[in-house]
Design a protein that fits this description.
By secondary structure, the chain is α/β, with parallel strands linked by helices. Helix content is about 40%, strand content about 25%. The protein has 10 helices and 11 strands. Strands 3, 4, 5, 6, 9, 10 and 11 form a 7-stranded mixed sheet that branches. The chain has a two-stranded antiparallel ribbon with strand order 1-2. The protein has a two-stranded parallel sheet with strand order 7-8. Strand 1 and strand 2 form a beta hairpin. The longest helix is centred in the first third of the chain and has 28 residues.
Length: about 325
C-alpha cells in the first residue's frame, strides 16, 4: 500500500545507502558496511520512502526484501549515482593536474611491472599527485578499500562486493611451472586436465591468484592436492625448481627464474587472470584518485600489453 509523500529533496547519500541496502536486504549488514548506525540508516530509508510515495521493501519478521517499487527505483537510483560520478570525472579532467594524495593498494605480484609502469606514465602528465602505496593480498587490499584506507586498488580477481565498482584492464595468461626433469618439461603447451592430480605448490587462500586457480579446478570438479602454500611467487618458483611440486603461475613477468624451472603455457580458455582497478561505489573519490582512474582506464600501458592482453570474450567465471 502506498505511503504518504511530502515535499523534500532526496540526497545523494540516501541514494547510495539505498543501493547498498538493496544489495544486502539487511539493515545491520548495510549499516556496518557503510560505517553508519542502524538507526541512521533506518531513518534515511523511511524518509526516502515517504519522498517517493511507496514502500521500497517488503518487511516480514524484521527482514527486508526489495519489492517491485524498490526494483524500479534501484535502476534509476543507480543511473543517478553513475551520472553524478561521470560529472565528477569530467570536472576532474577539466581541472587538470593539481595537488593531492592518492592512497593506492595493489597485489604483490603487480609491484615489479604493472604498478611502476602506470605510475611512470601518469607522472609524465601529473607531477603534483602524491602516492601512498600499500601492497598485500587480494583480501587485504579489498579490506583496505572498504575501510577507507585505500582510494583505489589494482587487483585480481574481480571483487564480489556490492560496495565496490570494478573495471578490467588486462588478461594475463597462466602457465604450469615444473622442474626441468619433470616428465612434462619437454611439452610446448598442455591442458589442465592432464595435470589435475599433480602435487601443487600454491599461493595462500587470501591471494587472488589462488582464488583464480581454485575456481579453475572447481569448474572441473577437482580439489587440487596442495602440499605447500606461500605468499610469494618467487618462493613458489624456488619450491618448484627443487622438485617439491608443480604450480600455476602467471606466464610473465617472473622473478629471476631458476634454470631448474620451466613454464609450460596452459591451452585452456580459462587459464588467465583478469587484472583490474577497483574503487568504492558508495563514497566520492578524491580528485587525485579520479584523475588516476581516468588515466588508467583511458590509456592502457605498453608494458601491460606486453605482459597480457585486453580483456575479451571468455568463459564465464562461476562462483
Amino acid at each position: 500500500m502506498p505511503i504518504s509523500s511530502y515535499s523534500r529533496a532526496v540526497t545523494i547519500d540516501e541514494l547510495r545507502w539505498f543501493l547498498v541496502l538493496a544489495s544486502t536486504e539487511n539493515v545491520s549488514r548495510a549499516a556496518e558496511q557503510l560505517h553508519i548506525g542502524q538507526p541512521t540508516l533506518s531513518r534515511a530509508l523511511r524518509r526516502l520512502e515517504r519522498q517517493v510515495g511507496a514502500p521500497l521493501f517488503d518487511r516480514t519478521r524484521q527482514r527486508l526484501r526489495l519489492n517491485n517499487y524498490g526494483e524500479a527505483f534501484r535502476a534509476r537510483a543507480q543511473r543517478a549515482v553513475d551520472e553524478l560520478a561521470r560529472a565528477e570525472d569530467d570536472i576532474a579532467v577539466m581541472l587538470g593536474p593539481g595537488p593531492g594524495t592518492l592512497r593506492l593498494a595493489f597485489l604483490h605480484s603487480l609491484g615489479t611491472w604493472l604498478l611502476p609502469d602506470l605510475l611512470g606514465r601518469f607522472g609524465q602528465t601529473d607531477t603534483q599527485t602524491k602516492f601512498v602505496l600499500h601492497q598485500d593480498s587480494a583480501d587485504q587490499v579489498l579490506a583496505a578499500l572498504l575501510s577507507g584506507r585505500a582510494d583505489l586498488v589494482l587487483t585480481s580477481p574481480q571483487p564480489r562486493d556490492p560496495l565496490v565498482s570494478w573495471a578490467p584492464l588486462l588478461d594475463q595468461k597462466l602457465s604450469l611451472a615444473v622442474w626441468k626433469d619433470h616428465p612434462l618439461a619437454g611439452r610446448e603447451s598442455l591442458r589442465l586436465s592432464e595435470v589435475l592430480h599433480e602435487r601443487y605448490v600454491a599461493m595462500q587462500p587470501e591471494f587472488g591468484l589462488r582464488q583464480t586457480t581454485d575456481a579453475m579446478f572447481a569448474r572441473r570438479g577437482i580439489k587440487p592436492n596442495i602440499i605447500l602454500e606461500s605468499a610469494e611467487i618467487a618462493t613458489i618458483g624456488g619450491l618448484v625448481a627443487n622438485e617439491l611440486g608443480v604450480a600455476i603461475l602467471p606466464d610473465r613477468p617472473m622473478p629471476a627464474q631458476s634454470p631448474n624451472m620451466r613454464l609450460i603455457p596452459l591451452e585452456d580458455g580459462d587459464a588467465f587472470r583478469t587484472i583490474g582497478i577497483a574503487w568504492p561505489s558508495v563514497r566520492p573519490l578524491p580528485q587525485a584518485a579520479r584523475r588516476f582512474r581516468i588515466f588508467v582506464l583511458g590509456q592502457p600501458s605498453a608494458d601491460a600489453m606486453e605482459h597480457g592482453q585486453p580483456p575479451q570474450a571468455r568463459l564465464p567465471v562461476r562462483a
